[in-house]
Amino acid sequence: MLRIVSFTFNGFAENTYLLIDEATRATAIVDPGAYSRAEQDTLRNYVAAHQLDVKLLLNTHAHIDHVLGNAFVLNTYPGIPFLLHALDLPTLRAVATYAGPYGFANYEPAEPTGELVAGQVIKLGESELSVRFAPGHAPGHVVFYDEASGQLVGGDVLFKSSIGRTDLPGGDHNTLLKSIKEELLTLPDATVVYPGHGPTTTIGAERRSNPFLG
């Protein structure tokens, strides 16, 4: 069974997730926003205290708040794969050009070692994550769905009573709505959504009451 642990990091209040296969302790770190030394220590100390076996670094997308800790993770757990959808490579590479003006002068870039594609299945110990392509907030945005536990790590696609913003480069409102309706609202109502910001929600709750999906 997959267990998900969340941390909220950096000035954007971004949710960083550990996806932990409870049978093997194999762990994927998703969207590490840890920037400060204290944030990095919090993440590293949790992994060590729970004897987790970090196997993967995954990005749902590559806006600055979700990638500030990429290099830290790769330096701390050398040799692990770093996967990102190819359409978000330009988004990732652009971060270095604006990190300083945003107040993150010590941002360290990191390059993916592999690609995420729609329909891909990622094995994590005895758990399996399916990759769903959900652009609109970012060109190469993906979400990670664990059918067995009914959990979705959704990045900045769907929030509790809201949806991702589409006014950033590469964003498109109609594309985002299409992604939500085809890739998220087709999941069971009980599916728990772990968003990139804010509290968890469920597919059913957002289907019933999200004002952007009426």
UniProtKB/TrEMBL annotation:
Its cofactor is Zn(2+). GO terms for molecular function: hydrolase activity; metal ion binding. SUPFAM superfamilies: Metallo-hydrolase/oxidoreductase. Residues 13-197 form the Metallo-beta-lactamase domain. The keyword Hydrolase applies. Keywords: Hydrolase, Metal-binding, Zinc. This is MBL fold metallo-hydrolase.
